[in-house]
Design goal:
Order of helices and strands: HHEHHEEEEEEHEEEHEEE
Helix content: 25-40%
CATH topology of the largest domain: Rossmann fold
CATH class of the largest domain: Alpha Beta
Strand content: 15-25%
CATH architecture of the largest domain: 3-Layer(aba) Sandwich
Number of helices: 6
Low-confidence stretches: 255-266
CATH superfamily of the largest domain: Cell division protein FtsQ/DivIB
Shape: elongated
Length: 268
């Protein structure tokens, strides 16, 4: 009996002394506090960012030398964007809206801290009139279809819709050659049939027709240098639509002549 009791006591002691199968994890309070602090700071930073993004644009500064674009026009275009967040505002959209204004060739938009926009404008440079009320820039682009004011000194170009660049390029080429001779081109027209007519600063009208326009232009400048320049004040028009020469229409009545050895009916 004693031996059994001793065995039971020993087995209980072993059970008590044995290591537990499950242990509670040790909490590292310092790490936990650091994580909580980091989350708190991140939350505050996120809230701050949202607050900054939501701040509206409070002022706009427009820079550049311009005469045709008014401050009222710029303010009207920018008005829908001013209530948007300073940082969330899409600058590309603002730039596109400002560039779409008449007479604006280029616009750049940038943020200016803390809550302002800086807008820089470059105006179009009008190189010629187009049709009744349009304006072309130096690249031959129609940037105003109906201008309220057209400078009187601009040359008058005209042609079917979509020919603006073609007519402008031809005008610049002809005018450059005339400038070398102390003259200039004041008008160039391409009609619906494809016929060209040039008007010089001395009032002479040059009819170039529809065919071989470059060759006819070259023949005209040769004739101008050799024959026509001294007679310019008496000439009303020069018709280059002849295969082997040209015809001259004089200002005085009853005095029409041709400077070519052969004169035939003009070609188109």
């Amino acid at each position: 009996m004693l031996s059994r009791r001793n065995q039971r006591r020993k087995s209980k002691k072993k059970a008590i002394n044995a290591a537990p199968l499950l242990r509670m994890p040790q909490i590292k309070w310092m790490i936990l506090l650091n994580i909580c602090a980091l989350l708190g700071v991140s939350g505050l930073a996120y809230t701050g960012v949202l607050w900054v993004l939501a701040q509206p644009v409070k002022s706009v500064r427009v820079e550049g030398t311009f005469e045709r674009v008014s401050a009222v026009q710029v303010e009207a275009v920018l008005s829908p964007y001013l209530e948007q967040g300073f940082l969330s505002l899409e600058l590309a959209d603002v730039q596109a809206a400002v560039t779409a204004l008449p007479w604006v060739a280029y616009a750049s938009v940038r943020r200016s801290w803390p809550a302002a926009l800086s807008v820089t404008l470059v105006e179009q440079s009008a190189a010629a009139r187009w049709g009744k009320g349009g304006l072309l820039n130096v690249y031959g682009e129609l940037f105003v279809a109906k201008a309220s004011h057209i400078p009187a000194e601009l040359p008058a170009l005209n042609g079917p819709p979509g020919t603006e660049l073609r007519v402008a390029q031809h005008y610049f080429d002809l005018d450059a050659q005339l400038q070398q001779r102390g003259l200039s081109a004041v008008a160039l027209e391409l009609d619906a049939r494809g016929s060209w007519e040039l008007t010089l600063s001395n009032g002479i009208v040059v009819r170039l027709g529809t065919e071989d326009v470059d060759a006819r232009s070259a023949r005209f400048f040769t004739a101008l240098d050799r024959v026509l320049q001294p007679l310019a004040e008496q000439i009303n028009y020069v018709d280059m639509r002849y295969p082997n020469g040209f015809a001259v229409g004089w200002k005085a009545r009853g005095n029409a002549a041709a400077s070519a050895a052969e004169v035939v009916e003009p070609n188109a």
